[in-house]
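Reviewer 2 asked us to include a model.

Predict the structure of this chain.
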Amino acid sequence: MRLAVQAPCGGVQLTHGKILPTAGADRAGRFAAPRAVPLARKCVTMLDISKRNNVHVTGQGPVTILFAHGFGCDQNMWRYLAPAFEGRFRIVLFDLVGSGASDLAAYDYAKYDSLQGYADDVLEIIDAFASGNVIFVGHSVSTMIGLLAANKAPERFLAHIMIGPSPCYINDRDYVGGFARADIDELLSTVENNYLGWSSAMAPAIMGAPDQPQLALELTNSFCRTDPNIAKHFARVTFLSDHRKELARCQAPVLILQCSDDLIAPVAVGEYMQREMPHSTLVVIDNVGHCPHLSAPHASTVAMDAFLVPWLTDAG
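Predicted model (structure tokens):
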């Protein structure tokens, strides 16, 4: 599908990287953009964001679904889910900075020393590319990135779909995150000393799906394509993060989608999140692995469709 992004630049359109005049874009107030920023500056910002995060827009509809991939992955991981919604929603796909085809020169170790740096990027992507407010679909670490973004700007988010989420990977008293602190320290030491070896060993375990070995190979290759220094930094930020206190602040509806057998995010984590988040629903997919959007896409789509009924109705 050809990319034709209706931009929030008030009368411009971005088509394959070129700015063209249009008639009345943003006339209906459908796009959220900084009010006091000159036109030229807004458009440059949109182009910069598109390059930084390798943004792609497809589909059409009054509501936007923003898909955010997990650690060591890229937007291609949504290829089985995103097309199911293109006829009813505007779809925005992007790569986290440091991943996929993002601009590696934009990776700032200070900015991305916490997940809030990525959350700030998400808000900029929404302002530049979303039509109206968004439904945020995140996988793994990106579920918390979306949560942080929503807690900072709740008016921009209609709902969240969290696939394999975990607010904290480390066990803490009664909280079961799935790993002892010593396990995480050993994991990070291995990542630091032998990232490619860790990737080859861990990617198949993370993917699961023993009946689909091609998916394990795909994830291994994705991990290995990631810049090792960035991956090491992102791994430390990811696995040492603790965003449990942020859960109760989320007032939007949330679908927590977890696998019945997940090495990274066990069902106990989903149950904890459901208790802590006031408007959440937990759906457990009978599946082995951490990536049901790849290994069990039909079950994932069915669960998403059921959750999205109000917005599917609005989208016609």
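Residues 1-41 have pLDDT under 50 and may be disordered. The chain has one domain: 4-314. We have added this to the supplementary material.
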